[in-house]
Amino acid sequence: MIIMYVTYAGNAETSFDRAHWINVHLPLVRECWGPYGLERVGGFFPQDDGGGLIAIAPCVFRDEASMQAALASPQTVRVMADVDLVTAVKPQRSLALPL
Description:
CATH topology: Alpha-Beta Plaits
CATH class: Alpha Beta
Order of helices and strands: EHEEHHE
Structural class: alpha+beta
CATH architecture: 2-Layer Sandwich
Mean pLDDT: 94
Number of domains: 1
Radius of gyration: 13 Å
Number of helices: 3
């Protein structure tokens, strides 16, 4: 298992369509990356200032190879195009590996 954290930096003034992200974007991520080994994805919004983060999506993949295959897939174009409907903020990725 590997977790890719997709984070969006910003503050209370940053435009971010929460409803679209939760109701449209995250299901699209499941649809596009599920066949490549995405096991689950969720989304949450940090409380208060969130340390400069406005949204976080942990994407849990079967393994690193499946994550790389998903990111390299043609469906990633759809995922990234939909991000533009949510916000102008470019998402950042970081990885967490199990111990």
